[in-house]
Design brief:
The structure is a homotetramer. With about 350 residues, chain A is of the alpha/beta class. Helices cover about 40% and strands about 20% of the residues of chain A. The first copy, chain A, folds into two domains: about 1-5 and about 255-340, Aspartate Aminotransferase, domain 1 (Alpha-Beta Complex), CATH 3.90.1150; about 15-250, Type I PLP-dependent aspartate aminotransferase-like (Major domain) (Aspartate Aminotransferase, domain 2, 3-Layer(aba) Sandwich), CATH 3.40.640.10. In chain A, about 60% of the residues are buried. Chains A and B meet through helix 1, helix 3 and helix 10 of A and helix 1, helix 3 and helix 10 of B.
Chain lengths: ~350, ~350, ~350, ~350
């Protein structure tokens, strides 16, 4: 079987696993006070331009819920693209935390600064706005659910809108490593750290067994955030589990290397797909490829390749998704290419 | 340094870590649908007498919050000993989930069936009880915060009280492995599964890097519990992380073996302590030993031994805690014995 | 000034106020145990076909929040038209209670049974539905936000869909009195009680100073609902306040009489508007009239008439709303007719 | 029947009811924008020394829940006497809002500044305090559940403790009118407004049909508090209901007059009780009188007098409660006196 189903079907990158094995016998402080966690935070801060407060968590929904739940006040909701992960596939975690997700139409998975601006202007122009959920945060993903990217200009425009209404900008970076490794990308990790009030650097989908590194801009950490993490059942007793992994991911450029392998494999696969006449349903430059495929082809190909059905397009065609990761090998892509 | 500070200062038991390494390269289904997780559940069910529904989670506070938050209705609270973990050291996770912890006095960390019965009788005898939080669950720990054990008779008595008022009984088994391995213990895992509506088998403090196995009695799983886990940010994308670990812990009697090592080391240490004239502050048969120690001795001993200050007793003496684990070696106990 | 702004600008219907005055000096049990409240419940039950459990509350948002918050489990959300009151103008009360409002497109403010059916079919056909908010209730308003009415056939069709998926149907009747008084209406109060799991009979907008009467179908009252009302700060100490009012509203057909006055005034006003050449923006048979008006006319008319600007339609025209109530007199309508 | 059961068995003070009747036919803005509400706020501000922001709500539990729920952050709890209303008889409203009530022992229903100080010192001295609920507010009642009063010195001492740890002080004044009217009292309404970050002036138990006036110190109103009120279902559509009542209560000294009648009747009743040989169980100077009574006497007296059984004291005696109000007449007290 060739695996292109997702970037989380294998375990950790071997270097990450090695680090867990090597440190396993050490007696270490718990709850995130161990030297690996401290070192990981230091390295992440360095990658963010030298500043920021770092918290290691175990998953994306958990991270989104903790940030949004602690930053927003009761009367506030979070603006997101209607395709945003928090708007659909997090089982109502944000509403469970008490907040409405205020959805806006998307453009290839992205929120435009203009759409957000219009929404905010209209909201405060509405005479009964005090009877409505106040927009209190803007949520974006880099890359988006469709693998598309915000350009630096687009990110700056969102920042300006947020500044004008004094609301924080938060970016979900579950697959950030793949954005950073894209030749098309012009947003660095330091840009993320500078332009967002908070964002997270995905580990689970980028080489870790589990783990996301949440970064707050200096001064933006909610009061007693560590207690809040504990209260939400998200504080690992053996904090070393995420500490060791992120320390490894940020050593010797491993995080960048993982991203680049996935992106170069995705580029090669796009070549095969294009030459075989497949059309991209959404043009994504990252490690997720959405193409239109005849249903019959899908049915035969899935016998030898693990990949995802996305949605039906018409009577004969469907949209499918191929995903690459650190574990994808050039020979896997080549083998898939021959089957297309 | 000799380590007796807690049972979570080292990583995973080597056999658990090996299992993670061996399975690392496999492509597996996500979110708990992988064969390791399924196999772990099967083995745990077998250890529970053949029945029960098993969910693997990452930590104790998370597990307590998920069980209590999903089983209780809004108007209900949970009865616990005033020393219960949920009553003090979980940062208000239960209240954050909307429920009051109804605390009762403890006896060596334990709730007596009589005290619970009296509370329930008094509650429903109060003419204004509809203006008060209804007792909707009983929470206990096995072993307790003080390392003490409920006997089978005590557990059955609690069950009877719960049956009479039709409220569920839930047991926190963060250190269950150490209870099971105690010669003094007469409550088997199957007894736990049969007498409690839900309980969890601690992994984090008993040989895993992270992980707790929550077991519901057949028919007691809250509706759509998996969705609720997701909603609370507690569903691991790579469910293999806990699946592989619990599969290993329940293979070839590893969970029992880990417990027995800790208990035999604790017994040896109790011998040294007793011979050196130390008095146990709370008589615990499990892997936590609470003894009275002159403050001066504490100050000198801590230079060579990692162990915990518990509380001041009087002007000259304090209570300290020693904890053993799978990683404690007989020679460590012996070395500590010589320093006492 | 002529008042057509809303049905809540005056106090209580004189007969309601009289009842408050007459009962004022009596010493009565508190928290809803007084004879007025009991009698009101009895009369409402009779109007509902003889069955149902009745709770008196103070406002619509409060009632919606209490019903939805107590009936739904954590993983569930409520289906509503995108124009539903809970979806926009209740300040996120439903999300604050932890639940997502799952909005569907409306047809003149109404949800069609077909749209709900399609949504439910699609939801359970989605392979990742366990990661999404489960539809756990259907919310409608009778009349809707636009003053339109569900026919008996439409209501029955919704009931069938709800039955098929075993989810409750709940109706917001903030202005129910105006629906019942409409010649076009074929849904009786007993139909509401029989076809909905819960619905409320609006008092605040139909002749009371405050108060809504919530009716549950037999057997559908959430456990300990009175305690839940108390917990949400919604239990009046002097329950007589709503008890006396609803007792008066359901004595000698007052509730029906109040509705009929508003509806006959609205019909007369529709005649004047039509003859003056105004077009109804949304054809509503109840006490809210939405018409298209030149902006210049709006600006001049508002000097003598209190009514509401609704929204801009084009460069020259806007949509405005006129509302009638128990307090509207035929001579007011005539006077307004002359100004059109 | 003579009524001494509580201060909420009759309706509104006649002057309050008159005001409702007189204003009933007026067309007024809704949601608290009417002139009565604005005037009431102005008068209350004047009584508070000229400053403060006033919000009118309908009940005490609702007010406590709104203040505590909006002022506290997720990780914070509220310190209260174990006898505090929020700790027992509000059905878990505070926990439902997500916050633990941190109870301390009381002294005649009161919290001492010393006890609070010790609690705060101990909390921050605990090395694991980040795993515990942070004390984020101090809640007191004036008068307390037992009718006792904080002196100005006691209140100032609490304020100092709160200042030192920068946490707000909040006072529940459900029966504030009776405190203010006590000869023993040395805390004015302006003192309350100056020394508390927020407090409320009870109306329901002091002459209104419903209503409490919440006062925040300048600058202490939670952001968008009106939206939060709406979100919690606590914003009256016809805000006039509470506006008119508080306007009346604060006109011509009515609020003070109501309190004085209750207090002078209570004083007279204390005289009768004392002369008849009854002992006060808790010495209260306000309108609640707790005395020890032989059970047999209780059984006979209740045939002619409505009053409350409080608790059993010993085999033969019980504690009972008599309460006076604006509606208690000297002749009622005299009649009761003869029956003692």
């Amino acid at each position: 079987m060739l695996w292109f189903e997702s970037d989380y079907t294998v375990g950790a990158h071997p270097a990450v696993m090695d680090a867990l094995v090597r440190s396993n016998a050490e007696n270490l402080p718990s709850y995130g006070a161990d030297p690996y966690t401290l070192r990981a935070a230091e390295k992440i801060r360095a990658a963010c331009g030298g500043e920021g407060e770092v918290f290691l968590l175990t998953g994306g929904t958990q991270t989104n819920m903790l940030v949004i739940g602690s930053v927003l006040r009761a009367h506030e909701g979070v603006i997101a693209a209607e395709t945003g992960h928090i708007a659909s596939h997090e089982a109502g975690a944000i509403e469970h935390a008490g907040h409405k997700v205020l959805t806006l139409p998307h453009r290839e998975g992205k929120l435009s600064a203009d759409a957000v601006k219009r929404y905010l202007e209209d909201f405060y122009a509405d005479p009964v706005y005090t009877h409505m959920v106040h927009p209190g945060m803007v949520y974006i993903s880099q890359p988006t659910e469709y693998g598309t990217l915000y350009s630096l200009a687009e990110l700056k425009a969102l920042r300006e809108v947020c500044d004008r209404w004094s609301i924080p900008l938060y970016a979900d970076g579950a697959r950030l490593g793949y954005a950073l490794a894209c030749p098309e990308n012009d947003v660095s990790m330091a840009d993320m750290a500078r332009l967002c009030d908070a964002f997270y650097i995905g580990g689970t989908k980028v080489g870790a067994l589990c783990g996301e590194a949440l970064v707050f801009r200096p001064g933006r950490v909610p009061a007693a955030f560590r207690t809040y993490i504990k209260q939400e059942g998200a504080l690992l007793c053996k904090g070393r589990l995420t500490g060791v992994q992120f320390d490894a991911l940020f050593t010797d450029g491993l995080y960048g290397e993982i991203g680049r392998n996935a992106i170069s494999c995705a580029a090669a696969l796009r070549g095969y797909l294009s030459r075989a006449g497949y059309r991209e349903h959404i043009a994504s430059p990252t490690n997720q490829i959405f193409v239109v495929m005849p249903r019959a082809k899908y049915d035969s190909l899935r016998k030898e390749v693990a990949f995802s059905f996305w949605e039906n397009l018409d009577a004969e065609n469907c949209v499918v998704r191929f995903v690459t990761s650190w574990a994808t090998r050039p020979e896997d892509v080549e083998a898939l290419g021959k089957l297309l």
